[in-house]
Design a protein that fits this description.
The structure is a homodimer of 426-residue chains. Chain A is α/β, with parallel strands linked by helices and 426 residues long. Chain A contains 13 helices and 17 strands. In chain A, the strands form 4 sheets. The first copy, chain A, has a 7-stranded mixed beta sheet with strand order 3-2-1-4-15-16-17.
Amino acid sequence: MNPSTFIVRGDICYSEVCGELKTLERGYLVCENGLVEGVYGSLPERFAGIPVRDFGRQMIIPGLVDLHVHAPQYSFRGTHMDLELLDWLNRYTFPEESKYADEDYARKRYTVFVNDLRRGATTRACIFGTLHVPATEILMDLLEQSGLRTMVGKVNMDRNAPDYLCEESAEVSAQDTVEWVKDCRKRYRNTKPILTPRFTPSCTDALMENLKKVQLRYGLPLQSHLSENLSEIEWVKELCPEAEFYGDAYDRFGLFGADCPTIMAHCVYSDEREIRRMKENGVFVAHCPESNMNVCSGIAPVRRFLDEGLHVGMGSDVAGGTVLSIFTAMMHAIQASKLRWRLVDDSLKPLSAAEVFYLGTKGGGAFFGKVGSFEPGYEFDAVVLDDSRHSAPCEYSIADRLERFLYFHQEQDIKAKYVAGEELFC
Amino acid sequence: MNPSTFIVRGDICYSEVCGELKTLERGYLVCENGLVEGVYGSLPERFAGIPVRDFGRQMIIPGLVDLHVHAPQYSFRGTHMDLELLDWLNRYTFPEESKYADEDYARKRYTVFVNDLRRGATTRACIFGTLHVPATEILMDLLEQSGLRTMVGKVNMDRNAPDYLCEESAEVSAQDTVEWVKDCRKRYRNTKPILTPRFTPSCTDALMENLKKVQLRYGLPLQSHLSENLSEIEWVKELCPEAEFYGDAYDRFGLFGADCPTIMAHCVYSDEREIRRMKENGVFVAHCPESNMNVCSGIAPVRRFLDEGLHVGMGSDVAGGTVLSIFTAMMHAIQASKLRWRLVDDSLKPLSAAEVFYLGTKGGGAFFGKVGSFEPGYEFDAVVLDDSRHSAPCEYSIADRLERFLYFHQEQDIKAKYVAGEELFC
C-alpha cells in the first residue's frame, strides 16, 4: 500500500449536490496521495494494516472555502461599521490599506491574519492584498508557510482613490503586476497569484485593457467586486455609460470570466441581464451576507443564482464582514435569505443549512478544481469538529449537529485540519 | 468601612443614556452593600485599605439582561429552523414542551439551560417555562441556586394547542397559577414569578379575565408575545375582532402594562396605535432580532420605539434565537436595523453599537429596577471580559473593543461575574 495512504474515522458529513447532505456515522475516510480515495461504512479488506486515526464521534467535513476576503482589513474588523460602502472605503479602509506600504507593518498585521485563518476551518481562500507588491509578497510568504492553499491578489487601482493609495498610471500598475506574477511563479507552490482590479470605480479603461493583456499572457484567474451597493452601482453607471449593466463594464474588457476563471463578490443587485451574462461566462459569485448587512448593502438573491445554475460560494469579506469563519457566513446566509423572503421577494424561498453548507464547501471549492467534497478524486481537504460542548452527539443526527455547529461553533472546536492530504496542526 | 465593601479595577464601560458610552481606562468600581457606590479614576482616600481586585486591562461592564427566553426550548436550539412561527410551534416546540410533564426530563434539560445561562454574561433574565408547575419549580430551584436574578413564568395556555399541551380550563389554569405563586413566595429569594399567558391565540377570554384577577391579587408583572409574525397577527384579528390592534387584545383585560410592569416580546409589526398604547402603559419591548430572522418574522422598528421613548431591552428568545448570548443579540440588532433601513424604511436609521449596548444593559435592566448601569445606587451587576484574544487592548479605544466584543466574543472570554454584589464563579 502506498505510504501516503491514511485513514480517518468519525461522523462524516459532506455535500455532493446543493441541498443534500451525505452523512455517515463512524465512517472511514481514506486519503491516497493527497486525494480522497473513498468513504466507507466498513473498511475494505485492501486497507487492512493502514493506520486509522479515530476521532470518535467528532464530525469530519470538507475544509471550508472563503472566496472573498481582504487580508489588510483584518486589523480593523469589528469596528467602524457605521457607514455605507463608499464612505466606509474612503474613511476607514483606504487609510488602513495605505499603511501596508510599510513592510514591517504589513508583516506584523498579516501574521495575525494568516495565523487566524490557519486556526479556523478554512482550507482554501481567495484573498485581496493591497496595491503594494512587497506587502503582498509578505502575505504570500506567510500563506505559503501556513499550509493553506490560496489565491492572492495584488490590488490594481489607478483612479478615484486618495493619492496615498493610488497607482501612478495604468502602465505602472500593469508592469508591477507582471513583475509580481513572475516572482510568484518562482516562489510559491500553494499560493497562486490572482488578478485583482479593485472594482470598476478604481480602474481606468487603460488599466482594464492592460490587465486583460496580463491575464492572457499568464493565464490568470481574476477576482473583483460587482453590484454590491446602490451608490456604487449608480457611480459605475456614470463612469461607464456605455456598459449595459455593471458586469458588462468588466466584460467589455474581457474581464468577466469569458476565458479565465473569475470571482465576483456580492452581486446583491445583479439584474436578469447580469445573471445571464454570469451564467454564460461561468462567473463564480462570492456571497458575503455579513458584509452586505454591515455596510448596509442589502441581500443578494442567492436562490435565484442557484435556480439559474450559477457557481456560488461563500465569502467572509473581512472587514465588511467581521470574522473569518465560513460557518458564521453560512449562518448569516440563511438568516439574510429569510429576511429577503419576508421583506423583498417571497418567490425566492430561504436557504437551508444543507444548501449553505454546500456553498461553503463544494460550491466555492469548485474554483480550486476538485475541492470541497469527499467524492473520490477530490483533494483531501478535511476538518475535524468537536461539538461535544454543544450537545450529546447521540441525541442528534449528524445533519442537526452540523446545523447547530453553524450557530454555536467556537475556534477551539476545530480539532484537526488537512489540506490536500497534509495535516496542519492548528 | 462596611465589610461588604469591595472594589474592582479595570477598563470600565457602561451606558447611562441610550447611544452614549461612559468609558474609563483602569478605573475603580466600588461596591457597597450590593450596590454601586461609584466609579473613580483615582481612588478616594476614604477607600484606603479596602482590597482592590485588579483585572488589568480587562473590560468591566454591567451584567447583561435577557428580557425574553424560553427555557424548555433550549434543548432544540439551532435545529429545525425551516418553518415560520405558527408551524414551528406546532411541529417542534409544543411536542418538546410537553415532555416537561416528566420531572426527570425537566431537571436534566433545565440543568443544562441554567448552567449555560450562568456561564454567560447575563445576570438577569425573564424566562418562560412550560404550563407544568412542577417542572417550572424545578427550573426556579436551579435558578435560585445559580445566583442569577430572574423572573420565571409558568405558562398559561388553554386553547389552540394540542391536547397534550393544553390546560383543562381557564379555571384550572388560574388555580394552578395561584398555587404556584404562593409556593414561589415561600421558596425563592432571587427568583420571582411572572404571569405568562403564552400569547393571545393560546388564551381564552375567560383565562385572560382570571389572570387579571390573579395579577391584581398578587401584584405580578407579566410577560407575553406581541405582533411577531404576519400569520399570527391575522389570526389574532380573527380571534379578537373587537380588538383595535393586537396589543388591545391584551389591554381589554388589563393585561397590557397599565397597572403592572409588562414585557411584550417582538413587536415586529406594531403600528402607531399599538406604539402609542405601549407608551401610555409603560410596556417594555423585548427586541429579539435573531429569532425574528430565524422564524422569518421580519425586523422590528426599534429606532421608532426609541424615538418614541418606549422602554426597550434585548431578548435572546431561545429557541427562536439559537444562543443565550445577549452580545450576539446586540450584533443581530445592529445588522437587522441596517437591513431594515436599506430594505424597508430609510427614515429609521440603523442602530449603533452604543445603542444596542444600552438596550442589553440599562434598557432591559430597568425592568428589574435600578439595574444595568454603574451609576451610584444601581445594583452591582458586573461582568469582566477578557478581549486579549481579539486584540492588543492599547491599540483600540474601550468603545471599539466593546464593539469588537459583540462580534468576536466566546464564552471563555467572560472572566468574572457579580450579581447584586455577589460573585458567581463562572
